[in-house]
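User: Structure please.
Assistant: Input sequence and predicted structure:
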Amino acid sequence: MRAIWKGALTFGLVNVPVKVYSATEDHDVSLHQVHNADGGRIRYQRICELDGEVVPYGDIDRAYDDGERTVVLTKEDFAALPAERSREIDVVEFVPSDQLDPLLFDSAYYLEPDSASPKAYVLLRQTLEQTDRTAIVRFSLRQKTRLAALRVRGDVLVLQTLRWADEVRQAAFPALDDPVKISAKELELSASLVESFASDFDPGAFSDDYQQELRTLIEAKLAKGDAIDTAETFGDHEEPDAGGEVIDLMAALRASVERSRAARGESGEGESEKPDAPAKKRGSRAANG
């Protein structure tokens, strides 16, 4: 990995030099556009509307238009902003970790200690772990002031940018305004269905099927030439019919529970009409027991 930024974590008189790395990467297959008649590459150019000339990226500034006037902002203007010149990640408060709404989370970055001794870095990490708190920080990156959560992941401090409060839309759906009556039996069957799918989350157990099939298609085209039979590569299969709205919720829940139990080799006979026995605990504790 290559560091994208260098700075220092600061809180009180404590200063922790760090390097910042992107914590995630996109695994999508990179594709470009071509002309379907001859396969020629399609490229986009930055053309000035006044003189019709292609403009190099280095000669491009940005501007704000209020509808009547245009203000041009140069690279020097942005560099002169105090926040942009700052290389500090300022801790503004420590909050209980469970108070952070995941809806606020945005991009994630790893922080690496950038000093001869990582003691201050480790001290901050252990303090966050012991107090079960997350540090809320401010910093500037790529000409934007950012709010972020500083938390612990394993032995590493992770900086996760947060959306500003006014960037989160409020959900208002008329269909949810009127009260909906849920019967005890419906809730019981729904809970039974949830329990039948209960497991510990392992992100490595899931894969991006679309990207895998796309790579398979590309490899097949490379091996056979441009003309291949897609059905030969993937086999014939039809997409399931989405159908309409499910009317009988009880029947759908019963069917889902029975299908899940059948797949797991469990007997569901007589179970749908009486409460389930207390479920065994799943997860690492049960596995270790």
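Confidence is low (pLDDT under 50) at residues 270-289.
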